[in-house]
Amino acid sequence: MRDKIFNYISPSFFYGWMIVAVANLGIFSSGPGQSHTFSVFVGPIGKDLDLSSASIASAYGLATLIAAFLLPYMGKLIDKYGARKTLIIVTILLGISCVFFGAASNFLMLTVGFGFLRFFGQGSLMLGCANLVSQWFDKKRGFAMSIMALGFGISMAIHPPLSQFLIDHYGWKFAWVFLGISTWIVMVPALYLLAWNTPESVGLSPDGGAKIESIDNTKEIIQGLNLSQALKERSFYILSAMWFGMAMLVTTLHFYQVTILTNQGITADFAAALFTVSAITMVLFMPVVGKLFDNIQTHYVLTIGLLINCVSLLSITFSVNEYYAFIYAVFFGMNNAISMTMFGYIWPRYFGRKHLGSIQGTGQMIGVIGASLGPLPVGLAIDLIGDPLVTIRYLALYPFVISFLTIFFLRPPSSLTKD
Known about the structure:
This protein is mainly α and 419 residues long. Helices cover 79% and strands 0% of the residues. The chain has 19 helices and no strands. The protein is globular. The mean pLDDT is 88.
């Protein structure tokens, strides 16, 4: 049946865009493992299980950190078995994790449930979807990644209000059962019927190039470094430092936006509403980011992204009225668009597609560790000195310094000459 669907669809347009649609659906389906979905459950879970917000946050942070260290192994499984089979299993396990989380009755079960959701949702599902799109596109990879990443914005728009509706009418436990079952319904058929690991496996080339006459030796056609070779390259460590910082600082702004702005005289309602401004900016700017990646040398685009990250951090510290806060929200939306597109793009761009899973898995681990540790410096500044602004301004130096390393020293390995 898969072959019939492929043969029916593929003659009319490049099948890679169908892969993008499946991956977009996958990024959306990662919602049960994302922070924006968890946010509406903190109050009901704390009240039902008699846990403080600090306890729930501790469970969440610990589980996220543990899940991060498992992602390189998931990347190796993707390399070995292909993204399609791996993603089907990941989706099934994500649904089971949702059901398990809904049955949590104590702190230990909650922590384990958080770990499963973060590993299979925020980690593995996003990793596999990025791998799929990376395999099907090369010259148009940036734009394809930006379209895929729109699924995250759709999840932000749908999962929190849907979850709140389910909590209000049926309780938080049923809400997780619903999220789990709906994840199976949305993703398993799409992956089973529509996903193919690489264009070469069906006689096509990335971006819709010339068809391949023989598909028996596609592994020889696909080029790229393995993880051991990548770890010997200077570019790997520059990219890792960049991705760690981007994930860390974007998470920090998400986590403390309302707190920082209200401390500077902005109302809580307006501070919360700025997330919508950032989300709209992100959606509008994502295709632009994708086109920039496809048409400008990569290290220039990454440098621009790092400088926008720097400006985002600085601008929130000067947001003393609604006008300046609005400007911050626009820059932060641009920052989110770049960071969401960046992850899936940079690893195949610099290290090829042949062993992409293990390299992406390691990169995803680095980013998740950064996201786990990110809020800590600002949180300590709030607790110890009562003012996070100076700390945030110092943190803004990080992307500024990395931008210099990126513009002057980031280049592909000599065996992968494209730039």
